[in-house]
Design brief:
- The protein is mainly alpha-helical.
- 68% of the residues lie in helices and 4% in strands.
- The chain has one domain.
- The longest helix is centred in the last third of the chain and has 32 residues.
- It is elongated.
Length: 165
């Protein structure tokens, strides 16, 4: 295993630990969802911008011509992202409390679902290492973006539905 792989796994570990810490802190002292839920959509816009810049940098790698992966590979990445996003959306719930505000409903299984998704992504990463670096990066970005879009936009719709009740 090379140093860049170790750094990647280290960053993933830090992000996972940070997410678990934030979720445990949030469940100890729940806060209502603010700004009419539009904060849920921020990652969709931010990731689009970040992935746009990343894609632009991938097209300018010296001595490495850029080409898009095959259509079936892009469709597979979209399908995997759809499955992962749908699972996350299924386990995301909201509730309206007596104070009239909407709160995220705690789910005991959420952390296991999140860990499973991370393990699946790491497994896919190891399995698809034979692909060209640029193709693999592009497919990972497509999968992640589809996954985040389905989860966040679906969560926003669920929130609005609960809020309207």
């Amino acid at each position: 295993m090379n140093n860049s792989s170790l750094y990647s796994y280290g960053i993933i570990l830090v992000i996972v630990l940070l997410m678990f810490w934030l979720r445990s802190r949030r469940s100890a002292k729940p806060r209502p969802i603010r700004r009419n839920g539009f904060g849920m959509l921020i990652p969709v816009v931010v990731l689009l911008i970040v992935f746009g810049f990343s894609l632009a940098s991938l097209t300018h790698i010296p001595d490495h011509p850029f080409h898009l992966p095959a259509v079936w590979e892009i469709l597979c990445a979209c399908a995997i992202g759809t499955i992962l996003g749908s699972v996350m959306l299924y386990y995301t719930e909201y509730e309206k409390r007596a104070d009239g505000r909407v709160y995220s409903k705690p789910n005991k299984n959420f952390q296991y679902v999140l860990l499973t998704i991370i393990v699946i992504r790491i497994g896919l990463t190891q399995y698809l290492k034979t692909l060209d670096y640029v193709e693999f990066t592009f497919l990972a970005m497509v999968m992640a973006y589809v996954y985040i879009c389905i989860w966040r936009i679906g969560s926003f719709v669920k929130f609005r539905r609960v809020r309207a009740q």
